[in-house]
Write a structure and sequence with these properties.
2 domains; five-stranded parallel sheet; about 10% strand; globular; alpha/beta; transferase; about 210 residues
């Protein structure tokens, strides 16, 4: 099996931006958020179950999932969040496992926001944490998602704290700067890690 680098970080940390930089280097990226959207696409059985449970209020005018509306409901109610997780997580994991098995590259970047919370670190050869200050997380996520600040705070509270996340890290990319100003430094760090991961993958292959 290919060498798996688990990429994680809290909401608003810049996971997707950094994953895209690895993708530009030719690295396959398997993103849990992307898969999560795929399994609830318009017309899917899982979307029908969600609508049956929550009602039409979580649909857009075009009958697609209104992720922001659903997010506000489930992060205000722990029981509803657990119901949704129990429905979606098995389907998401099955699809991600399939993509991991089919990856044709020395290593794969597996982007999972809840990598630590869902106890998936044991499925990784290495863990890369995107680290950011909580106040910057709040500012970025509020602007990006156009969500209520209270909802973003509830999401942050549902994730492991910064110290815990860093304790799981084999590698860290600090992303507190404005992305335009800090992008060159991040690109250099990504390139450096890319070379390390290629070497680690080669060593794993030799030891197999």
């Amino acid at each position: 099996m290919t060498y798996v680098v688990g990429l994680t970080g809290g909401i608003g940390s810049g996971k997707s931006t950094i994953a895209d930089l690895f993708m530009e280097l030719g690295v396959p990226v398997i993103d849990a958020d992307v898969v999560a959207r795929q399994v609830v696409e318009k017309g899917s059985p899982l979307l029908a179950e969600i609508v049956n449970h929550f009602g039409d209020q979580i649909l857009t005018d075009s009958q697609e999932l209104d992720r922001r509306a659903l997010r506000q409901i489930v992060f205000a109610n722990e029981n509803e969040r657990q119901w949704l997780n129990n429905l979606l997580h098995p389907a998401i994991r099955t699809e991600m496992d399939k993509q991991l098995e089919n990856a044709d590259y020395p290593y794969v970047m597996w982007v999972v926001p809840l990598l630590i919370e869902n106890k998936l670190t044991s499925s990784c050869d290495r863990v890369l944490v995107i680290d950011v200050l909580p106040e910057i997380q709040l500012e970025r996520a509020s602007k990006r998602d156009q969500s209520k600040v209270e909802t973003i705070k509830q999401i942050m509270a549902s994730q492991v704290d910064r110290t815990t996340r860093l304790n799981y890290a084999d590698d860290i990319i600090e992303n507190n700067q404005d992305l335009v100003k800090g992008i060159e430094g991040i690109k250099q760090k990504v390139l450096q890690l890319h070379q390390h991961y290629l070497q680690f993958a080669k060593q794993k292959g030799n030891n197999a």
